[in-house]
UniProtKB/TrEMBL annotation:
Residues 23-147 form the Arf-GAP domain. InterPro entries: ARF_GAP_AGD11/12/13, ARFGAP/RecO, ArfGAP_dom, ArfGAP_dom_sf, C2_dom, C2_domain_sf. The keyword Calcium applies. Residues 162-276 form the C2 domain. Keywords: Calcium, GTPase activation, Metal-binding, Zinc, Zinc-finger. This is Uncharacterized protein. Residues 144-165 are annotated as: Disordered.
Length: 333
């Protein structure tokens, strides 16, 4: 029995060394009902947090928090980043979103708080008023920006710098356009036969009224395009429609399958990180494969060499076979 206890203690000592106990505490805190929605906009399932303030927040609000600077709100990913013990302790000390909001929103006027679908401008105005200017606190109360983690000990330095407030403004609507997406159509695989023995495929992308098309690849079921197609993203964007056609000289071109591309994960990540050139290479978002989309596998959004990019593999729908591989890159306006 004594040996068993000793082995158990050694096990938990080892787990604590690798941060297991701290991560479990953070995970348990995230499971609280008030922490299942963003402290600032109410969006479900937040995956970011500010140990400086003690709140869990969504990806969109995270982007605004970064503009405040780490002295006001240092932002960490709950699932990706490494947390210092004092940062986890600071979150636990606050007690969760409800506890923090009871202070920061003690005198919140009705109708001021943004919802999950709020614009970047609305979020920015509210979050700066709430934390930077502390406009909704009880009269006479002022919270020092050096509380919690700053008092315990300085947080570990990271290679990531918070973007300036001007970086997020790049996603503001300019002449009806919030930015551009460059699609590199890499290649197709096992495309459907629409002629006697092969097909002459080309790809068409559609976003609203915009269309962009690759060149036609003659007699090729495994074409390699490596062609770039660029679409402007309007403020009220929807899904991007990808279609593959077989070119026919004397009749209408035959459809060879289609797929919808959800650009929301890419744009949400772009909103959160603003000027990607300020960050090192890292994963910042993900479009999850499911039964109701055409993804072959989860598609991650990454910062690569200062650019926001996403690799996508699509199983063509409404056709007997066919896969399209492409890469998407965000281009600010």
């Amino acid at each position: 029995m004594i040996v068993a206890c000793k082995q158990t203690n050694e096990f938990w000592t080892l787990m604590n060394h690798f941060g297991y106990a701290g991560k479990k505490k953070l995970k348990d805190l995230l499971q609280q009902s008030d922490n299942r929605t963003c402290a600032d906009c109410g969006a479900h399932d937040p995956k970011w947090a500010s140990p400086t303030i003690g709140v869990f927040i969504c990806l969109k609000c995270c982007g605004v928090h970064r503009t405040l600077g780490p002295n006001v709100s240092k932002v960490l990913s709950v699932t990706i980043d490494d947390w210092a013990d004092e940062e986890i302790d600071a979150m636990i000390e606050v007690g969760g979103n409800d506890s923090a909001n009871s202070i920061y929103e003690a005198h919140l006027p009705e109708g001021v708080k943004p919802g999950p679908d709020a614009s970047i401008a609305q979020r920015t105005k509210f979050i700066r008023s709430k934390y930077e200017h502390q406009e909704f606190l009880k009269p006479g109360l002022k919270i020092s920006s050096n509380k919690s983690t700053a008092e315990a000990s300085p947080p570990k330095e990271t290679s990531v710098r918070a973007p300036s407030s001007s970086s997020v403004q790049k996603l503001e609507c300019v002449d009806g356009v919030i930015g551009h997406l460059k699609f590199t159509i890499l290649q197709g695989a096992n495309l459907a036969i629409r002629d006697m023995l092969s097909s002459d495929p080309y790809v068409v992308l559609t976003l609203g009224e915009q269309k962009a098309q690759t060149t036609i690849m003659r007699s090729n079921l495994n074409p390699i395009w490596n062609e770039e197609l660029t679409l402007s993203v309007p403020q009220d964007y929807g899904l991007v429609k990808l279609q593959v056609f077989d070119y026919d000289r004397f009749s209408a071109d035959d459809i060879m399958g289609d797929a919808d591309i959800d650009i929301q994960p890419m744009l949400t990540s772009a909103v959160a990180y603003g000027d990607a050139s300020m960050f090192g290479d890292m994963q910042i978002g993900k479009w999850l494969q499911s039964h109701d989309n055409a993804l072959l596998e989860d598609s991650t959004v990454n910062i690569v060499d200062g650019k926001i990019k996403q690799e996508v593999s699509l199983q063509l729908q409404n056709v007997e076979s066919g896969i399209i591989y492409l890469e998407i890159e965000w281009i600010p306006p």
